[in-house]
Amino acid sequence: MLLVNAYVPDLVSDVIPLSAYTDLLQQNGYAYDLWDIAGGRPSPTAGDLQPYRVVVWRLNDGLASSDTLSDAQQRAISDYVNHGGALFMASMELLAAWPMSEARGSPARCCR
């Protein structure tokens, strides 16, 4: 499993610490690697994501946050999922705004 940390705190929302994810994974015996975009690492490419069966992508969904996915991140995630990868991203704001064509359908089916 790969945990992508792209969470950048804003000045309004409650901060959700990275440990909210890592502690839960560790307590339940899940092995994971951390890709820390928020810590300065460049965004993963589709090739970086492919070795992982599951990718958990963490970002700030607060009302005052400007966090979003770049076009390159969207392409990498789409390619990863379209080639059999599993993605978990909890962000109603981002998923509702995900650009989709008619062929892709609903947000739950954005990547086939």
Core attributes:
disordered C terminus, single chain
Estimate the helix proportion, in percent. 25-40%
Structural class by helix and strand composition: alpha/beta
User: How many strands in all?
Assistant: 4
Largest sheet: 4 strands, parallel
C-alpha end-to-end distance: 20 Å
Global Rg: 14 Å
Low-confidence stretches: 100-112
Helical run tally: 4
User: SSE order, as H and E?
Assistant: EHEHEHEH
Strand % is: 5-15%
Nearest-integer average pLDDT: 83
What is the strand arrangement across the widest sheet?
Answer: 2-1-3-4
* Inertia-based shape: globular
Summarize the structure.
The protein has 112 residues and is an alpha/beta fold.
How would you characterize the overall build of this protein?
- It contains 4 helices and 4 strands, in the order βαβαβαβα.
- The chain is globular, with a radius of gyration of 14 Å.
- It starts with a strand and ends in a 15-residue tail after the last helix.
- It has helices spanning 19-27, 46-49, 71-82, 92-97; strands spanning 2-5, 33-36, 54-58, 86-88.
- The relative contact order is 0.20.
- The longest helix is centred in the C-terminal third of the chain and has 12 residues, at 71-82.
- The chain is of the alpha/beta class and 112 residues long.
- Helix content is 28%, strand content 14%.
- Strands 2-1-3-4 form a 4-stranded parallel β-sheet, covered by helices on one side.
